[in-house]
Amino acid sequence: MAEGLCALRARVAFDSVTFAPEGVTVLVEGGLIVGVEPFGCDLPADCSVTDFEGTLLPGLIDGHVHLAADGEVGSLERAGTMPEDEVDAVITRTLSQEAAAGVTTVRDLGDTRFRTLAFRDQLMSGVPRIVASGPPLTVPGGHCHFLGGVAGDVDAARRLVAEHHERGVDVIKVMASGGMVTAGTDVFGVQFEPEVLCAVVDSAHRLGLAVLGHAHSLTGIRHALNAGVDGIEHFTGLTADGVHVPQDVLDRVAAVDAVVDPTLGFDKEGLAAMPLPPALAESLRQAGLDFATAYAARLEVLARAHARGVRIVSGSDAGVGPLKRHGCMVLGVIDILLAGLSPEQALATATSSAAVACGVERQTGRLVPGLAADLLVVDGDLRSDLEALRSPTAVFVRGYDVLA
Asked: What is the CA radius of gyration of the chain?
């Protein structure tokens, strides 16, 4: 983007809450939005103007990524043993992939050796903003134990939370159930004794940190809620006989205002060309499901959660495997329509609502003067076709044009 005052104009715009069908002019200077005006407003003579076809909106926020994993089979596991310079090289590459897809902020919910924090603090041109959890907390031999955040008892859990706080993390991620990419963990059960999980949440809250609980199983969701987590990642509701999330669980999530990130966004084209990861395939087999029926059941759960007033944000779990490559979050936003959300509501899960959930609402997520010029332009009219999210034509990260 040129130095000085610039104007970006589009005939269709989404401001993070609603569409402005008459279009807008977004004024940008010094990496910030300094004005949002009607499309045909008068501009200073020295203001450079760029007109865009398609739809202009805030840059997207992916609420759940793993930057240290590049989406290859076993990449998350390998990250735990790779030299730091190799991990950093992966993070550099995956951040670029996210930006190219229109994602201008990511929340990393599982790295190794706190490597994402260094990138978070550098604020490099064109590099997405990072909210970071550091290594996720898990039990010995538990889900993602290879990333280093292992705690077996109350004292160890409190020490680990304190270390994360000292390192400067933005949020705590804890594994309340087993996971699909870690062999030998129980995706139908829970991780941590109740008193240990409660200690994690209590310690984090005392230090001013929110806690997000990974939970694929229904028992894991209840386990996380009992401990008082602030949000639940995946929220699959997996049981031995299918995907089930009873209404009392949805009522409780709504009552405590926990945020649900369903981590949708599977690459369905890739799914048709390759087998499911073995652990995922085995979990579905044990539950009597195939991928299509499981996904449909998850969307039904999401529809009931939305109807109950549960706060929903979009995250992809990018990096964990070939079906979840970086930049895939737009697929999840599109899928949210299938759960009964409107296009505006679906887009809000990846902009304004996600900004609040990630604690960056004073920095980004809306077309508002004073916030960062994190902007996305896509080739198409999002009012009628969210598939246009897959066709970014311009991406600005703090005013820097990533695709130029």
From this structure: 21
Distance of alpha carbon 261 from alpha carbon 302, whole angstroms: 10
Q: Determine phi and psi for 51, rounding to 5 degrees.
A: -95, 135
- Which residue type, as a one-letter code, is found at position 370? G
Residue-wise pLDDT tens digits, 269-313: 888 778 887 888 888 888 899 989 999 999 999 999 999 999 999
pLDDT > 90: percent of the chain: 89
Sorted by where each starts, the structural domains of the chain and their CATH numbers stand as 6-59+365-401 (2.30.40.10), 60-358 (3.20.20.140)
Q: Enumerate the β-bridge partners of residue 395.
A: 376
Exposed / middle / buried, residue 121 (Cβ in 10 Å: 0-12, 13-18, 19+): exposed
Could you give the dihedral angle defined by the CA atoms of residues 142, 147, 148 and 149, in that order, rounded to the nearest 10 degrees? -60
d(CA 61, CA 98): 10
What distance in Å separates the CA atoms of residue 349 and residue 331, rounded to the nearest whole number? 13
286, 240 contact by CB (below 8 A): yes
* Spatial separation of the C-alpha atoms in residues 386 and 279, rounded to whole Å: 31
